[in-house]
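[Q] Does anyone have a clean structure-token version of this?
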Amino acid sequence: MVDDDGEVGVADNQCTRNEYADSVSAHIYSLVSRVETVGVDCATTPDRTKNVISDNLTYYDGSTTLGAAPTRYPGAPGKDQERRTRGPERDRNRARGENPGALRTSHRKGSHGIPAVTKWFNRSARSVFGDWRIMERDAHLMEMLRGLDDPQWPEFPADYSGVEAAASFSRLAAQIGSHFSTRCEIDRDIQDSAQYGRIEVPGEATVCGTRIVVLVSKFKPLAMVAADNPGAFLGTDEACAEGELDASDLGKIEQALAGSKYVTIPEELLTNRYDGATRLRFHGSGEPSWWDRFFGSF
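[A] Here you go.
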């Protein structure tokens, strides 16, 4: 449970409760099945007919039963799965820059030998259904990005409040630090950018020893998560597959983001070519992406 006391002197307390889908046999204890936020503090029993602010439910392995034990972490390979990579095998020379645009350009030139497409395949019908759900999710997220893309407001939305953004970012940083029992390095209120701030979980606090970076856009609720740095991997799935990001650590980050009402946009989606109406003053090579629109500099 996480208490949010809100503004001093104002009756705006909130409590976020998390439930988990545990599997003793698979040693899975960190997958969140429910994130409920109510408009009272955690010491008060809520009236769920009046106090519920949000109630997000997550089901695993195609189950329709909330909290049903999963058989493995999402994205982890099973017996009926294989990993296939289209493109040359690589001796990775990872880009460590802030902007994944540099790495995207390298993909086209092939200078790093990084494959253009990396995907988990599952030959069962359930995997086909899972792929369909991912496509549906991505379509919904792209619709959200397009809805926030107002060419008259490139750096922040028309209803942007710096005070609210600062308070929300501070709560998120505190929750992430609490989940990892560490002090996170933060950079906030970035100028001439649609990105509001950056939170870094130090490598010594993570299971794999690789730092985790969370970027927050001024266009709330947009956020993204990367292992090491944006652009170092082709998304969190690849980072997990290569042993640089532990699924339990990713679960902690996603739990904190959901509790602070942010929506995680996969990095793979953000690297799509930007085709919106805003005229971007793009500083990278190649073509601008949706990452440049909502997390890049102007």
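[Q] Thanks! Anything notable?
[A] Residues 1-72 form one domain.
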